[in-house]
Amino acid sequence: MSAALLTLTLKATELDSAAATTIISLSSGIAGAFTLIALPTVGALSDRTRSRLGRRRPYLLAAAAAFALGGLLLITAPAVPVLVLAHLLITTGFVTAGVTTTALVADQLPPDERGPVTAMLSMGTPLGALVGMAVGTPFGDRLVPLVLIPTAIAVVAVLLLAAVIHDPRADRELARLDWRELLAVFWVNPLRFPDFALVFASRLLVFSGVAALNGYQAIFLLRELDLSPAQLGGTILLTVVINAGVTMLTAPAVGRLTDALNVRKPFVLAAAMILGAGLLIASAAPGLGVYLFACGVVGLGQGVYFAVELVLATRVLPDPDNPAKDLGLLKIADNLPVALVAAVAPVLLAIGASGGENFAALFIAGAIAAFAGGSLILFIRGAR
Description:
Elements (H helix, E strand, L loop, with lengths): L1 H14 L4 H29 L8 H20 L3 H29 L6 H8 L1 H13 L6 H22 L14 H6 L9 H30 L5 H33 L3 H19 L4 H27 L8 H27 L9 H18 L8
Helix pairs in contact: 1-2, 1-4, 1-7, 1-9, 2-4, 2-13, 3-4, 3-7, 4-13, 5-10, 5-12, 6-7, 6-10, 9-10, 9-11, 9-12, 9-13, 9-14, 10-12, 11-12, 11-14
């Protein structure tokens, strides 16, 4: 998260300050496309793994290696292609760790006990952003510590989970995949599993709103609010503190409440509406104070969303006994928006812009996507 929020932007600016927005869009688009393949592939491979280390542990080890190499390349990248490769490796670590930890929840907890746990797991993203930015703030815009310290934390944390997790080897042998099953790794029939398709589409739209803000926040602060690169880290840390703080206060309580009520859909709808409202406020922010308030509203929406949406998703999986592949497909909806926003952002930023960039158009489009995503939840029939 520290790479997505800060260090990729700093490195792109270091390589070519005039073309930094284009470099970020290019790198994010390639990483997002790669994510489409990696998410279900990692999930399917994990489900089918029969190693002595278990089903999930080998992928935690792979995630640690990808984080380490990606961080080193991000620091040393002499040109844009190496920056893109670093982004791909960091994305590999993020995807692999995310799919694996989510699968562990479905592996080890019954459905009626997942609310608070999935809320805490989902909070890994804002909390990770908070920790990553907090440890780097004292270093201003010095890229080496800004990358190395969060990378080291990620590697140690993933290795620690791999060391302590109960992950027994699956006994049932599986037949070799044929070509039809290989294609099925990337596909769930929406006509056969319409609730799963609706959850996917809802997540895709809601996280498009989040990606519009997170992916271009650093450039927005530099160009619209006139921050210097040295001020950027501290300001982004402040936005993350507000966002993560509100999320932390909201998500666990809402998770327990939804478990008690056994109702998810109204909370998901409300969360998407609140998140979209925060984006609308950001689109009209005349200064840093209003923008920070918008971050708080977005954090409130995320807190409610994180508390309930993943629990809802685990109740509509096509194959509950092998959850990692389908959860990997759902996580595409978390990550594909990065590529989609990167593709459309240059067009939105250029709307009516004369000598500048129209960030308001980008944030408003994100708000519309969030509103639409929340509305789709109402059509799910297999969960309340």
